[in-house]
Design a protein that fits this description.
The protein is of the alpha/beta class. The chain has twelve helices and eleven strands. The relative contact order is 0.12.
């Protein structure tokens, strides 16, 4: 750092302010320091900075063992935001999601000296454990439901379902059937509630929902049953993987999409635009979830009164799988 200061013609303290993102540096001075950093190939010593600030500049993330698109993308969004903020990330992945496992994972990370933790908790069993976290540790929870009572960030799952159902009703369908996610997931509960309440508000019949396990296989099995019901003209599926299975089942039974049945999914997986037909779905902004989680955690770490985080707004992506009924 001394060499950087000498080359830039500034003090040691000014270099420190620039490297720590302080706004109390003139733009031209900042540019001169950054040019010197680049010329010398200087890299800050994270351990030394931690000794001075008494912070490790590492945060912990607790997630669960899954290949599901949503939680995996949330983890990626958090990692991106952490790197942008100059933090390293330590991850604990749970094979079993229950109160004891969640608390053990958080305690493991706390023992490693992390500055704070982010817990991805879409399952209600994990959310229930969050009120027993070690109190001195800054902690943010992600997707733990709308009433968790802790510093949290979440996508507005209810609004996403409302967008999907309202889209199908506006196309002229008398009602919308639903293939829900599994019990025990807050996201599945909120999407189901959004579907049900949107139909009720429109005065439309509320059919009995089906239940899957988020997998394409469960969507396929549900799709075979739905194909036998001539009353089904519009279907909202709680995630895109299950919707993929539904589309396969409908194709096997000669059910045209959207000719006979319109289908809307949730998540906007990368493959959604390339299915046949391309899938109308609800997109979640996982990068924004990461940014808000990181912003909220830094406020807690720095003992700043945390700003209330409104739900991240989803968006409807209209493609070929939804159309007006015949």
């Amino acid at each position: 750092m001394t060499d950087v200061a000498k080359l830039a013609g500034v003090s040691h303290q000014t270099v420190s302010r620039v490297l720590n993102g302080s706004p109390q540096v003139r733009p031209e001075t900042r540019e001169r320091v950054l040019a010197a950093v680049a010329e010398l190939g200087y890299r800050p010593n994270a351990m030394a900075r931690g000794l001075v600030s008494r912070r490790s500049k590492v945060l912990g993330v607790v997630t669960f063992d899954t290949i599901l698109y949503g939680p995996a993308c949330m983890l990626l969004g958090i990692e991106r935001a952490a790197r942008a903020a100059g933090y390293g990330v330590g991850i604990v992945t749970l094979e079993q999601v229950d109160r004891d496992s969640v608390l053990a994972a958080v305690n493991t990370l706390a023992g490693q000296g992390v500055d704070g933790v982010i817990v991805i908790a879409p399952q209600e069993a994990a959310a229930a454990a969050l009120h027993s976290l070690p109190t001195p540790l800054a902690a943010v929870v992600v997707e733990a439901g709308r009433e968790v009572g802790l510093p949290s960030v979440a996508v507005d799952q209810f609004e996403g379902a409302r967008l999907a159902v309202r889209h199908l009703l506006d196309l002229g369908h008398e009602t919308v059937w639903h293939l829900a996610g599994p019990d025990g997931f807050g996201e599945a509960r909120d999407r189901r509630e959004g579907w049900q309440r949107t139909l009720a508000a429109a005065g439309a019949p509320v059919p009995p929902p089906g239940v899957g396990d988020w997998s394409a296989r469960s969507g396929y099995e549900a799709g075979l049953a739905l194909a036998e019901n001539p009353e089904v003209t519009a279907l909202f599926v709680a995630n895109d993987q299950m919707a993929l299975g539904v589309l396969r089942a409908f194709a096997e039974r000669g059910i045209g999409v959207p000719g006979r049945v319109s289908v809307v999914g949730f998540d906007d997986i990368p493959e959604a635009a390339y299915l046949t037909p391309s899938l109308t779905t609800v997109r979640q902004d996982f990068d924004e979830v990461g940014r808000r989680s990181m912003r909220l955690l830094r406020q807690l770490i720095e003992s700043v009164e945390p700003e209330p985080q409104p739900p991240v707004a989803p968006t409807l992506v209209v493609r070929e799988s939804s159309a007006a009924p015949r």
